Known about the structure:
Helix 4 runs parallel beside helix 17 (about 345-365), helix 19 (about 380-395) packs antiparallel against helix 20 and helix 20 runs antiparallel to helix 21 (about 410-425). It is built from 24 helices and no strands. It is globular. The protein is mostly helical. It has 2 domains: about 1-250 and about 335-479, no CATH class; about 255-330, no CATH class. Keywords: Antiport, Ion transport, Membrane, Signal, Sodium, Sodium transport, Transmembrane, Transmembrane helix, Transport. It is found in: Membrane. It is a multi-pass membrane protein. InterPro entries: Cit_transptr-like_dom, NhaD-like.
Amino acid sequence: MNKQWLFLGALLTFFASPSFASVNSEQYLSLTQSTVGFAALALFTAAYVLVMLEEYLQLRKSKPVLLAAGLIWAMIGYVYQQNGMIEVAKAALEHNLLEYAELLLFLLVAMTYISAMEERRLFDALQAWMVGKGFDFKALFWITGVLAFFISPIADNLTTALLMCAVVLKVGGDNTKFVNLACINIVIAANAGGAFSPFGDITTLMVWQAGHVTFSEFMPLFLPSVINYIVPAVIMSFFIPATKPNVEHKHVELKRGARRIVGLFILTIATAVAFHAVLHFPPVIGMMMGLAYLQFFGFFLRRTLHTSLTKKAAMAIANGDDHALKSLGSVVPFDVFRRVSHAEWDTLLFFYGVVMCVGGLSLIGYLGLASDIMYSQWDPIWANVMVGILSAIVDNIPVMFAVLTMEPVMSMGNWLLVTLAAGVGGSLLSIGSAAGVALMGAAHGKYTFFGHLKWMPVIMLGYIASIAAHLMMNGHLFT
């Protein structure tokens, strides 16, 4: 029984936060064989089981991890207080909160911009264009996948997957087989596309913020990421019907300022990169500055609303354009704070729960059990490949937290490998990435855990092919 607990502890130490790495390991208590340690493992395991059953229980995934985080830290605080070391636990807690604050603010700005683009109807226009072109199901399968691959490096894989899923649900209707395959394709594409960009996934963002890989050094992962997407997509496309969807095309009028918001988002990303590359500040500083761009532009839209309406009405009347007159309703004020409120708060709170839970497990001392096995006794390449497989089971975010906590000494090639593996390995199961979890909710009943599971062997082929491609193409980076 004792060995079983040790094995479970070793496995679950992959769920540890990098934020406590700066605390001297000699300062904290080893609680791996204590009642508190076992209770913390049980709480986290139970919380994650509830997360995986979100589809069936209709229980938002943030709730169990938030509760588990509070209970784990309450137990840790009690033990450290009894031993007169409460300041050590407090320092660890503050480090975890700082890490989460940077992640929260970064994602909040990105989600606000995406919400703003959605409110200005950019994505409705994209959806209408695709429907209006009369594409058949097979063409739509490829178009949504390719778009997901190339949008996710900028808009992050979670947001991209949700946007493409909306298109699939619109055109797929009651064709459950098409919706399921298209959603699997979108999850794979979004995760693969996010693997070669610091903005494409939470895991790549963490590696970039930690300073292990610079912005430009992610690019060698482009071709392996393409292979990861193409291999399963080609196989699945043979099972897509060549018939056309029965949907009605409609014209979508973009709201005022839509294109300029896209430009401001690109400028925001450039600002974040500059803060990190030039000043060596956290990228979140640049992102928050970018939020100011959007706020000032929202102020401009509100102040010039009356003038814009007057000009458009005069032009429409002069030209006898009834359609333009009807579209004046789309020239509406813009409220940045309403866009902030539309962020994926359940996802953001879920990240908080994960960071705090695994930070507590790290402080308890389970980290040493796994780090000694994975990065001392194993070859780093095999360790990083296993990280990708684990990320499919437990979600790639806590897995990457664990690797960063261990701070293994690795070559650039291996840091890129673990980034690729954690990013695309999450595609193996629907619960392995935020994109998959979100789509199970968005396409409830049509894209399911077991519907995804049936295609796991095909997705595994892409996973193996992408890793092999990285080892061959970027072999010089492993020296």
